[in-house]
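ENTRY TYPE: paired fold submission
RECORD: A
CONTENT: sequence, then structure tokens
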Amino acid sequence: MSVDHATVKKIASLARIAINDAEADALVPELNNILGWVEQLGEVDVTGIEPMTAVIPNQTRLRDDVVTDGNVREKVLANAPQAEHGFFAVPKVIE
């Protein structure tokens, strides 16, 4: 795959990057070099190699998914302007 001046301008437009013609001309060989390196990676024999997500073994530490109220009802209600029977007391809005 080869990148030309028009392709660089299109990529810059899609990325919302403003570049002039001189900058686009300078990016053509750079992008072609990058694509060449990617093509070289495609030539590597990876048969028998399992895909991995990280270079070191990681295990996600998860907590139990249990619903709790946090046991802080009194602390929360202490900030309320009015509380009744363990709940926030609000003025009646519907008659």
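RECORD: B
CONTENT: sequence, then structure tokens
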Amino acid sequence: MKETCREIIDDSMLALHALAKLMPRLTSQCSLSEMLETINRTLGSTLAWISVDDDRGYPRVVCAGEVTCHAFDVTDFLASTLLQRHHRAWRAIYWKENVGKSLFTAQHPGYGQLQSGVLCKLSSHDGSCNGYFFLAFTRRLQALPVLKNIVAVLVEKLKEYFAEMVSRERTAKEMQRVVTQYKTLFERAPVLMTSFDKGNRCVLWNVECEKVFGWSMAEINAHADPLAVFYPDPEERRRVRSSFNVSPLKDMYEWHPLRKDGAQLTILWSNIPLPDNSILNIGLDITERKKVEQQLALKATTDDLTGCLNRSAILQQLQTAMAETQRPDAGNRFCVLMFDLDYFKQINDEWGHQVGDSALVHFCDRLREISPAHSALGRVGGEEFLLLMSQADSEAAVVLSARLRAALMERPMQMGDKSLTLSFSAGVVEVCCDQNDSSALLTRADKALYDAKRSGRGKTVVSRDYL
């Protein structure tokens, strides 16, 4: 076999046939070591290696053959060879004999075993050197021109291979960079990003999810139904599951899952279908924003001192209640009680405005304690209050007024070692269908209240006027 291979190199026709057989086998699907092994088998060479620099400038050596060769052997060989040829331009260097003595130390088996050899530059299109290709034989070759032609063809093929390899490596690195960026984005994004598979197991759970919900993905998947951790109510859980499995919601939709500590959150979720038919859930935690909105809404409708509705809010409630009476349902009626604290100016003058404020709070607290569940209490003026009693008549309003007087008597306002029993006057208007003028209704209530004060205060008067 060795003799046959030597004859291939020494005979140009045989060499041409060998190349024709060899070239189709050198494809980009082969690894570099597989390509070198194929070259050795086809041409009868004993050692083949390639040295190329990686992105950091360090030599990368791949070798194949019966004689072993290490990276440091190649590095030393190239250093000495290139130093000798420093001032001379070259593409290939040939050794007719004793190439092993140039490559190895005297203790290496290849030192005396290798005879003929060739070293070629692997140059890029711009002429820069990307690496080196080396081929060595155990026999002394006679026809170096044939070897030159074979190696020239091989070098071109190897240059194509390296061009594809570099392209693949660059593409792989770019893909890795993109993957790393997206992984970093996924992990560090200040939004909730999660996904559940068709078996309802959590398969994606970023850092923000763990931070907001308090659960790790392993803890979630330890439950038979992970969604039950966040949505204990079966019906709500069914709707949530449907939102990302059956009919994904592309718009942001508000859900109220539970944290690990049991606190309820307000999350805006949107579902994004992915190419593999899975669903990526992206969410925003708006719990604190909702709390602020609720606080602002409460502040906009609440009297700062007493905590009851302010004038604007109670009048809006009155309009709504009057609109309800226009419905054809039987029994749509309500009562309006207008209260005014008696002698309130004297309280302010004698005790001071701070005590006056406390008197207003004390009055509202007692009134709230005895008011029906669906009533609405609002402050319409300094010491004037309006109470709306749904589904109540004037008789019920008078009874409530009497209970309030009793409560104020039983629990007078305490100021240190002194106490103050509050008194009030009230006007009552019973509202039923066909009454839709709130201004006229308030005028009636105010007139009834005035009648109560004029008759001696501490009384409740029911309006007998009709629109």
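NOTES ON RECORD B: Residues 144-188 form the longest helix (45 residues). The mean pLDDT is 84.
STATUS: closed
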